[in-house]
Design goal:
Length: about 140
C-alpha cells in the first residue's frame, strides 16, 4: 500500500501525493504550500477531496491515495490506489473535450460539464493501482 500518511506531501519530481483511504475518521490538512499554491485535502475511507487555492481539483468516492499528481494547461496525470472500484471527479476547463487514459489505454473522449467537472471510474483493489492521464 502506498497511502500518504502525512495526508499531503511534495515529491522530489515536483508533483504532489495526497490521500489516505485507510482512515476510519475524516482527516484534513489546510494551507499546504506547493509551488506557490495553497492546497487543502480532506480524506478518509469514504472520500478524498483536494482543493487548490480554494478551487476544486479532485474528489474520489470512496477514498483513495493519489501519487505523483501533476497538472499542466493540457494534461493531468496521477497514479491512484484504493480499496476497490472508485469514482473520480476532476476539475478541468468548462465545456471542453478531453481524452482519458487509464493504464495508458484510452477509455475514450469525454466532455466536461459547464462547471468543468469530468467523472470517470477506475477498477482498483488493495493490490492494484491505476495510472490516469487526461489530455486536452
Amino acid at each position: 500500500m502506498a497511502v500518504v500518511e502525512e495526508l499531503l506531501r511534495s515529491e522530489q519530481d515536483g508533483t504532489i501525493s495526497f490521500g489516505n483511504y485507510t482512515l476510519a475518521n475524516k482527516a484534513k490538512l489546510e494551507d499546504f504550500e506547493h509551488s506557490g499554491d495553497l492546497y487543502k485535502v480532506k480524506t478518509y475511507k469514504t472520500m478524498t477531496r483536494l482543493e487548490k487555492n480554494g478551487l476544486f481539483v479532485y474528489e474520489s468516492v470512496p477514498g483513495t491515495s493519489v501519487l505523483h499528481f501533476a497538472e499542466s494547461a493540457d494534461e493531468i496525470r496521477f497514479t491512484v490506489e484504493g480499496g476497490g472500484d472508485v469514482q473520480i471527479t476532476v476539475g478541468l476547463g468548462e465545456d471542453t473535450e478531453y481524452e482519458v487514459f487509464v493504464d495508458e489505454k484510452s477509455i475514450g473522449k469525454m466532455k466536461t460539464n459547464l462547471s468543468g467537472k469530468l467523472v470517470l471510474g477506475a477498477e482498483l483493489s488493495e493490490a492494484r493501482m491505476a495510472q490516469v492521464r487526461i489530455t486536452k
